[in-house]
Amino acid sequence: MLKQLLPLYLLLVALFVAAPSRATTKTTFKMYALMDDEYDRLKKSGDSLFVRGEYERAKFKYESILLVVPGYEEDAYAKGRIELSQKAITLRKQASDALSQNKGPEAIQLYQQVLVINPSDPITKGYVTEYWSAEGNKLYNQKKYREAKTRYQEALRYAPNQEYLQIQLKNIERFIGYKPLTGLKIAVGVVGIAAAVQAVLTRSGIQTKLDDLNALSTTVDPDGDGEILTSPLYDQWRKAYDEAKDAKAKESMVTVYAGVAAVAVVAETILLLRKPKRAVPTKGLSWQPAARGVGLSVRYTF
Question: Shortest CA distance to 81 belongs to which of 47, 53, 106, 122?
Fold first, then answer.
């Protein structure tokens, strides 16, 4: 009996598929619209992360398009952006390795390749700014002021906070040819730099712990739903969270240290205005943008 009804059943199924109802068609259109909306959402999120230089997270968004959005498994745009993101990740890693081996010029070439991929990348610009600023400081400490000036000017090409590098360049012009600092000026400078360094180190420690927590959160909970699937991963995340919380508790001290440094800068400025003769300086305050393009890094040149 079942064998006799099977052909009729197959015919009815075929007719149903070939001539869907209006309700079925309407539902299908809604499904396609939802898939398009999800594609647009992931694409927009990935593009925003890419522009900000967060290539690992951007790559994850583009990969999600291929994996979870029906009909976009072979999307050319997502595939292309995945390739560019991976290339930028690789170049950044190579640049970091080169810096760790004291191969600065090679690292800069690699960072510049990243900026060819994404000229707006603020993170890579921060790394380049930090490199040239450090080179300038090194030459400044050696009293090679004109060479230091060229390094600071190079840093200006990439620094988002150019005002502070301009201040450092003006300091160089002002310091060249002046007499050595007096004992009082040295004392003020030492107090200021000690406070400034402590503020920078404290703030850097806090930011490092927060960055570690954010990076780990992205790894253990990539979809951002607040669920960590395994106990070891949760323990790892919890440890990072506790360390970040402890570091955050020290944030008020940054303000205290920065206040002391600011008072020292004011005092140092007053002393600088009282230079009666020109001679080569041996000490002075210098400023530069922070590595990530936010805030100031204060250095004292001995």
Answer: 47
